[in-house]
Amino acid sequence: MDGTIVEVANLTKRYAVGGKTIVALDHLSFRVKRGSFVAIQGHSGSGKSTLLHLIGLLAFPQVGQLWIDGVETATLSEAEAAAVRAKKIGFIFQSFHLLAHLTALENVVLPALGDVAAAEQRARALLDQVGLADRADQRPGELSGGEQQRVAVARALINDPVLLLADEPTGNLDAESEQLVLQELQQAHRHGKTVVVASHSEVFLRVADRVLTLQAGRLIDDKEEVTR
Ligand SMILES: Nc1ncnc2c1ncn2[C@@H]1O[C@H](COP(=O)(O)OP(=O)(O)OP(=O)(O)O)[C@@H](O)[C@H]1O
Ligand SMILES: [Mg+2]
Q1: What percent of the chain has pLDDT over 70?
Q2: Whose CA is nearest to atom 3 of ligand 1?
């Protein structure tokens, strides 16, 4: 296993809408270094979410290849892809995607692999880490947006994934909540996780080791920290 955690080669995603074809990603190729913090920027519609969904194995390309932690993903069955996703990838969405009828603790435990009692202990520790130990038994509707997103961060970390993907994670949050989510992602990064964040927000661009810029499904800029 080398220093690459994600590799995409010629990745192409098209959507067919009303007889038209939209090219959301156009033969995209790049590698992500293990342990790096990568920010993806680009105008609305440039393909950021599509790219994160492909890397997160939530959608699949028509053309091209994707390796996650050395595993070539195109030949995986649905069950194998789900296993890679559960074990290696944590995903954070703009709109939190918590289940409304479950408590914060239950939401964090939900994707856990292995022993339930051990998972609950890890979930409590993660809720404590994100500052929500005293909110464990509240449902999403009884939490602020910022709190819900911190629950979602805890959920993304429950299986200790090597890769943390976040799609506009602070798009619905105020500046203060944004800082808290940023700090959690930075802490995960310090603990060795690879973090990839798509966002319009400046705060991620400032802390990232590398900024990729998409335009119309193509990579038009790729800056490492030293050259910025
Ligand atoms: N499910 C879909 N069906 C059809 N077209 C889609 C679908 N999802 C995205 N697209 C199109 O693909 C292109 C890329 O969309 P994508 O959501 O990846 O952009 P984005 O960079 O995340 O934008 P934003 O900053 O607004 O979140 C856009 O032209 C969009 O309209
Ligand atoms: Mg998007």
Answers
A1: 98
A2: 15
